[in-house]
Amino acid sequence: MKLKPLPGAISLALALTACGGEKSTPTDGASAGVSTSFARLQTQVLESSCGFSACHTPGNTSNSGLVLTGAGVYQSLVNAPATQPIAKADGLRRVVPGKPDSSLLWHKVNGFVNGHHAREYGAAMPYGGQPLPAGQIEFIRQWIAGGASRTSDDISPSLLSGTVAAPAYVPLIAPTGGFQLRMIPFSINASSEREVFLYAPVRNTQETWVNRVQTNMRTGSHHFVIYSFAANTPSLVIPQAGIVRDLKNSDGTYQLGTIAAMGYHVFFGGSQAAASDFTFPAGVAMRVPAGTVLDVNSHYVNSTAKAITGEAEANLYTVSASQVQFEAAALNLNNTALTLPVGRDTTIRKTFKFAKLTRVVMLTSHMHKRGLKFVVRISGGARDGELVYQNEAWDHPLILTLPTPLVLQAGEGLTSEVTYRGDASKVVRFGLTSEDEMNIIFGYSY
């Protein structure tokens, strides 16, 4: 399973990342030789700071629906609603004239700064590259704060010059009350991406309770996710501990052993943000049996001309059993009754009812490459049919945290509503390989 849209992330569902492209199409505000602050912003920042695999060029905007080249960019940014689900829920727009803090663009270009915003708004901008120079970020701030004009030319162009050095990576310090999982440093070649897994022992000699999961990643990461394995996982599928496993071979084909293991993954924790810190409500914690080994997954995108290093850590903070009132459980709501007809799109729904009161505090999803949209709705009760989760990126699904738990009474539940693209020549059914399909709601509840 390949997970962003932290926000994702990213998780990781990206709503706004920088993109490069050809400049043969006239840009907003720059026609007839007119030079404006916005024209400079578009040509010298938006079009030149390119996100390698999530560009905002025509035909390559499946995650965001936003093109940042050519004509129409101004209208697509200013007062346009954010599509990233958490930003949308927080009332952000892509750009709000006069209000940087209400503008998703401002948060995106500051996404490399730990703690800049309290909520996860997907991957930082520019995606897969280094942070923008401080002058360019200040140019964006002044443009938004000054009213986000399309025609004025009142911001110093000198702010757009300069370069930025990659920030020094500061690893997480292992907790004194808990355990640390670490993705050991690995290399990502220039203008490429790499996704790896590492089966890592927690090193807990007795049963323990985890109430907080903190993650941290080097610049360039799309996501960092932790998985356990389902109880029915065959022993031959369990990977060897301590060995980095690639998702793909050097020729771009999938590693079959890695794919087989992914079919039995159960979400444990993770994020698309450069740094995240999730704490369960008071009195709630996950039980981690003695001797647990978890599969950590890191995905990096490198749009630069040099190789970069990937690295990440997760701190699992523990509490004593006496402090635990409710045991948190990983949601694993799996619809295996999938049959996709040849040559046409199909939407498949399944409702999962809960036998007792259930409080949901995180949601994410899993589908394979034919998945177009994954929607989760409430089933039953006063909010029957209400949409609570939506993701359109099969390989980078949104990880949605719910500060206010979604409370479902006994007999109520969640409905997965997944739309797939049919294969041109064969019927596709549920299965574990990338050529099969899946439909799983993951998350946390108690």
Model description:
The chain has 446 residues and is mainly β. It folds into 3 domains: 31-160, no CATH class; 178-326, Jelly Rolls, CATH 2.60.120; 330-445, Jelly Rolls. Helices cover 10% and strands 33% of the residues. It has 6 helices and 20 strands. Strands 1, 3, 7, 8, 10, 11, 14, 17 and 20 form a 9-stranded mixed β-sheet that branches. It has a 5-stranded antiparallel β-sheet with strand order 5-2-9-4-6. Strand 15 and strand 16 form a beta hairpin. The chain is globular and about 65 Å long.
List the helices and strands and how they pair.
Blueprint: H1 37-46, H2 73-77, H3 85-89, H4 104-109, H5 134-145, E1 178-188, E2 192-201, E3 208-217, E4 221-229, E5 244-246, H6 256-262, E6 265-271, E7 275-279, E8 284-288, E9 293-302, E10 308-319, E11 326-334, E12 339-340, E13 346-353, E14 358-366, E15 371-379, E16 387-391, E17 400-408, E18 413-420, E19 428-429, E20 440-445
Helix pairs in contact: 1-5
Q: Determine Rg (CA atoms, Å).
A: 22 Å
Helical fraction: 10-25%
* Count of discrete domains: 3
Could you tell me the strand content as a percent range? 25-35%
> What's the overall average pLDDT, rounded?
84
Contiguous runs where pLDDT drops below 50 for at least 5 residues: 1-27, 29-33, 50-54
In total, how many beta strands?
A: 20
Q: What is the third-level CATH name, the topology of the largest domain?
A: Jelly Rolls
Give the helices and strands as they follow along the chain: HHHHHEEEEEHEEEEEEEEEEEEEEE
Shape: globular
The description of the largest β-sheet is: 9 strands, mixed
**Computed structural class:** mainly beta
**Given the structure, what is the number of helices?**
6
Spatial gap, N to C terminus:
24 Å
